[in-house]
Amino acid sequence: xxxxxxxxxxxxxxxxxxxxxxxxxxxxxxxxxxxxxxxxxxxxxxxxxxxxxxxxxxxxxxxxxxxxxxxxxxxxxxxxxxxxxxxxxxxxxxxxxxxxxxxxxxxxxxxxxxxxxxxxxxxxxxxxxxxxxxxxxxxxxxxxxxxxxxxxxxxxxxxxxxxxxxxxxxxxxxxxxxxxxxxxxxxxxxxxxxxxxxxxxxxxxxxxxxxxxxxxxxxxxxxxxxxxxxxxxxxxxxxxxxxxxxxxxxxxxxxxxxxxxxxxxxxxxxxxxxxxxxxxxxxxxxxxxxxxxxxxxxxxxxxxxxxxxxxxxxxxxxxxxxxxxxx
Length: 327
Ligand code: TXA
Ligand code: MG
Hints:
Layout: H1 4-14, E1 19-21, E2 28-32, H2 36-46, E3 55-57, H3 64-67, E4 68-69, H4 73-82, E5 87-93, H5 99-102, E6 107-111, H6 116-124, E7 129-130, H7 145-152, E8 158-159, E9 172-177, E10 180-185, H8 191-198, E11 202-203, E12 227-230, H9 233-237, E13 245-249, E14 261-264, H10 271-286, E15 292-296, H11 303-315
Parallel strand pairs: 1-8, 3-6, 5-9, 10-11, 12-15, 13-14, 13-15
Antiparallel strand pairs: 1-2, 2-7, 3-7, 4-5, 5-6, 9-10
The structure holds threonylcarbamoyladenylate and magnesium ion.
């Protein structure tokens, strides 16, 4: 059965409008991947630089041949293992993929999301969807429909509400240099899980001025409030006494007299639960007129690496990349 909301989303997309859709990672701002006029609206609404390419979302691995060619064996192994799911593959593109999608590169990023509402919508469309995270460029990614509405209000004709995102951080991005796999972005699938499937993977070296994956830009996923990332919150609190401080911890509960606000991401110490809660916690802290947010580093293993990666980008003060906006 097609619900009324999905019908509205289909109509909007067919009219080259944007919609927000839930995925299991974060909410996406979606448009027809084959319509340049629709894709342009994504860059305008997000204020996203044009050099930052988009991910094409498919309903199944069977659609892969429509968008990509010369697919390495290891990419197929990863697709078999992780799709539908939170893994994006960067592959050689077919010629009809618009340059706006790929920022003029000869590669295209693709994934099959796991969220049932996203899959239902994709199956009903006769085109794939490009969907970056549904937030203004550089700000905290949305993990609920309310976050998306908070950012874009009435500028979006349809926001499909699929509840809170179950994974809560963006997809892991893997590309290839020949047949050699390269990790472009840490994400909801851990490096250990990728390496269990295909063996060792190289990390891309980070370069802000010509980013291969702008998910690697140093400042990204950032709250408005000044944020610090520390080894030990207790040892740092003293430096900020008298200020309105909020803390983001993995497991530890703080004395309410020492902090104005606190978010504990997983009292039982589960990294998957912490990932699910990270962005919602940052959104809540950022809404409380704090002077400082102090976040604690996670254990550097599994999803802890992804969480530390996002927090490191959240604390960077300078936006030193050149911004090129569409008019
Ligand atoms: O979980 C996700 O991946 C979410 C949901 C909505 O699917 N989407 C998402 O999109 O995080 P976005 O646009 O915020 O991040 C896409 C990342 C960017 O860092 C971009 O540089 C990288 O994908 N990317 C896209 N095409 C690429 C390409 N051809 N080569 C290298 N990186 C690419
Ligand atoms: Mg994003």
